[in-house]
Design a protein that fits this description.
Layout: H1 4-7, E1 10-14, E2 17-22, E3 27-32, H2 33-42, H3 48-54, H4 59-77, E4 93-99, H5 128-141, E5 144-151, H6 159-174, E6 183-188, H7 195-203, E7 207-211, H8 216-222, H9 232-246, E8 251-256, H10 258-262, H11 267-278, E9 283-287, H12 300-319, H13 332-339, E10 353-356, E11 361-363, E12 377-378, H14 389-397, H15 407-410
Parallel strand pairs: 4-5, 4-10, 5-6, 6-7, 7-8, 8-9
Antiparallel strand pairs: 1-2, 2-3, 10-11, 11-12
Helix pairs in contact: 5-6, 7-9
Length: 421
């Protein structure tokens, strides 16, 4: 019997037995304590008869159990789609984040974007001509733009630019230059959703994610207006307008901080509150990510405990057949396992995702804005098929995110599931 698959198993204690995971085929088994111990020993010694005798198990019985495990692994192997070879980058479909505004009407105390201007950006709004050129540049370099996320700052401060971009793309589609329009989305604080914004959102089916950090007293402390007033009531009003006038429930995005813990609100309780108050079906609650020590930052053990407890609660609810209250970030590895579809990159920005600033600079992601070593070019000179020194250098710096070529990641059994921002 071929036992090479046994050496690829990762075996964990679970309750009164073991869980076995075969990473290449996403195969997961639960076995009793006796078989689990035998499999652990088989990873060092492949003499089945000897191990069967040592554990007082008939050899043919053990052989039959091993055959069942091998059969399921081989069956799952046939359903795994092979990783396609890297081809011409011009054939990629890409996602684009368009920073249409660097201004913001809020003064969130943990804002990584320095109030929206990222510490240096001089233009507070993207000019119309530059926005349209950004779209043309991406279409010239890639097979398609799969999605466009309007970002900021606060993007609703530039609704006219958003409308112009959507009109430009619709015109391209009408002329037959592209087959279909991208999926549009926008991350907003939800406080400035006036009649004009609602009309554009409805007309171009822009998926909305609204940022809110929980109960009014916590949200207003973390996300005040520039004038020092609370933002919660405005957020709730904007959320309700999307529901009633556009006809869908926006996604919710929340940041969990030490302020929540000080108020006695766990991450699980925050999820429950947001789901009860906003009744959303898609959302993200993530621990705050701040450089160095910060009064809002979480101690690593607290962060791990909060995320672990929240994930455990979500999984238990799913096991009971309940729809998860929040999905995107915490459940991503689980969905990858269920779909038997891992990820090549810890994060694929710079490969099939790009951000364009109000000044027309192209970065892999908004978190890299103003980091010169990650500047990939501008909308005036970006050329993926004939990259210059700047694009090559930035791309080289991102290679560590490719788990198949990163020497640390390539041999890791969990590489299919990990991701990071």
């Amino acid at each position: 019997m071929e036992l090479s698959y046994v050496r690829d198993l990762h075996i964990f204690r679970y309750e009164d037995g073991f869980l076995m995971f075969h990473p290449d085929t996403y195969s997961l088994f639960r076995v009793g304590a006796g078989l689990g111990r035998i499999l652990q020993e088989l990873q060092e010694c492949d003499n089945v008869a000897e191990l069967a005798a040592r554990h007082h198990t008939p050899a043919d019985t053990l052989q039959a159990k091993l055959a069942v495990i091998e059969g399921k692994i081989n069956h799952n192997r046939t359903s795994i789609e092979p990783r396609p070879p890297e081809g011409d980058p011009r054939n990629r479909k890409v996602g684009l984040t368009l920073n249409v505004s660097n201004a913001c009407n809020l003064a969130c105390v943990y804002c990584y974007a320095n109030g929206g201007d990222y510490g240096r950006q001089e233009k507070t709004r993207m000019e119309r001509g530059l926005a349209l050129k950004s779209i043309d540049t991406m279409y010239r370099n890639f097979a398609a733009i799969d999605s466009i996320m309007f970002f900021g700052g606060e993007p609703t401060l530039a609704m006219d630019i958003i409308e112009a971009v959507c009109e430009h793309i619709e015109a391209k589609k009408g002329r037959g230059e592209i087959q279909s329009a991208p999926r549009y989305s926008m991350v907003t604080n939800g406080t400035m959703l006036d009649d004009y914004a609602i009309r554009v959102i409805r007309q171009y089916r822009i998926a909305i994610t609204i940022s809110v950090d929980g109960p009014k007293e916590i949200n207003d402390k973390l996300r005040p207006t520039k004038g020092g007033k609370g933002s919660y009531d405005l957020v709730k009003k904007g959320f309700d307008r999307i529901v009633s006038e556009v006809g869908y429930i926006p996604a919710i995005e929340a940041t969990y901080t030490q302020t929540h813990r000080d108020a006695g609100l766990s991450m699980t309780a925050l999820i429950d509150y947001l789901h009860k108050e906003f009744k959303f079906t898609v959302g993200t609650v993530a621990p705050v990510d701040l450089p160095g020590p910060h009064r809002l930052g979480l101690a690593s053990e607290d962060r791990n405990r909060e995320v672990g407890d929240a994930l455990r609660t979500l999984l238990m609810a799913m096991a009971k057949g309940e729809r998860p209250k929040i999905e995107r970030s915490l459940l991503a590895p689980i969905l990858q396992f269920v779909k038997k579809r891992g990820t090549r990159f810890t994060c694929s920005v710079g490969h099939d995702g790009f951000t364009i600033t109000t000044e027309g600079d192209i970065y892999p992601c908004q978190v890299f804005i103003n980091q010169k070593e990650f500047l990939m070019g501008t909308v005036h000179d970006f050329d993926i098929s004939s990259p210059g020194a700047q694009l090559k250098s930035a791309t080289q710096r991102l290679l560590y995110r490719d788990k198949h070529s990163n020497p640390i990641c390539s041999g890791c059994w969990a590489k299919q599931f990990c991701f990071c921002c």
